[in-house]
């Protein structure tokens, strides 16, 4: 059972209550983590897998990328930390450590995954580069790569640093996991699951091979971009990281990955 209810875009426009507008075509780490947080907490949330980021999304939500968390009264939330804070306030199992030092560490590490310049961000730069450098024959198609390049700080000379950062973040989380396991704990920051485990699992979805059955609604034209990223960094995803992601999806997160209400499917 999941507390996520998938709505199509038209129904969602006239809905009220908390609504989470997410990437509808691919398992984007930020969108999947936001969904995972509500699911783990068993907090009811209406989820809208948005077909593509466009002017209509801006007019509706006031945001220019996804995820966007809409409530009836409060400003739209688009950042991972704000979305997490909102969910935490609603209740369910706590996903942020209560103790201040642990909380600071949690958010610092989460920023390595979800923040500007972090794992998700650098993954995207590398996928953009794959498309641009190959004239769109690999990774993202040329129009998609060009669109994302303008929007997310792409420059070819930034790619070596982005790849180095990806390797660094993977090594960092492998070491965190090893330290926690050595202390007899199951999760990254100890015996309790935190949002950090969810961010790691959803970021790693980009870095491990994804079978059709794992995410049946993945748009076929996005598949080469994910495959390209696996080619670039897959070798640095350690067996321990793969196993941690697998455990999270087997025991905590919805599986297979659902992106949108079937009716909202786009070509
Ligand atoms: N605002 C998010 C990051 C969201 C983000 O980077 N979204 C990307 C996911 S690939 C997106 O919407 N890309 C599609 C687009 O910009 O058109 C956060 O800071 O937590």
Description of the molecule:
- With 267 residues, the chain is an alpha/beta fold.
- It has a four-stranded mixed β-sheet with strand order 1-3-2-4, with helices on one face.
- Strand 2, helix 2 and strand 3 form a beta-alpha-beta unit.
- The two termini are 29 Å apart.
- The model has no long low-confidence stretch (mean pLDDT 96).
- It has two domains: 99 residues, Glutaredoxin, CATH 3.40.30; 152 residues, Glutathione S-transferase Yfyf (Class Pi), Chain A, domain 2 (Up-down Bundle), CATH 1.20.1050.
- The protein is 50% helix and 6% strand.
- Glutathione binds next to loops.
What is the strand and helix layout of this fold?
Elements (H helix, E strand, L loop, with lengths): L3 E3 L2 H5 L5 E5 L5 H13 L3 E6 L4 H7 L6 E3 L9 H11 L9 H15 L4 H15 L8 H10 L7 H24 L12 H10 L18 H11 L5 H13 L16
Parallel strand pairs: 1-3, 2-3
Antiparallel strand pairs: 2-4
Helix pairs in contact: 2-4, 2-9, 5-9, 6-7, 6-8, 6-10, 9-11
Bound molecules: glutathione.
